[in-house]
Design a protein that fits this description.
3-stranded antiparallel sheet; alpha+beta; 3 helices; 45% helix
């Protein structure tokens, strides 16, 4: 599955917190450091496997943990409307 950022979203990093604003929905999404990192990668369409590899490289985590983190992020990000899914 391939995903990418929805257009017209604003983002800000304030101290250790990262926020994405969906103006159309009127929502503010508070992302942790890893989720914000993953979201920024989706400026271009990427497959789940690519996100997993990028996460492993950046944070030196085990593959099993990276898969869990990416899947959790994608589920929440789709639900909150900050990314789109391409089949």
């Amino acid at each position: 599955m391939t995903h990418y950022q929805k257009e017209d979203l604003l983002h800000r990093k304030i101290e250790d917190r990262c926020f994405v604003v969906n103006q159309k929905k009127g929502t503010l999404i508070d992302l942790n450091k890893v989720s914000f990192f993953l979201w920024k990668q989706l400026v271009k369409p990427l497959k789940n496997t690519s996100l997993i590899k990028i996460l492993i490289k950046e944070y030196d985590v085990e593959r099993k943990q990276a898969i869990k983190d990416v899947n959790s992020f994608l589920k929440k990000a789709i639900k909150s409307g900050i990314i789109k899914k391409i089949k």
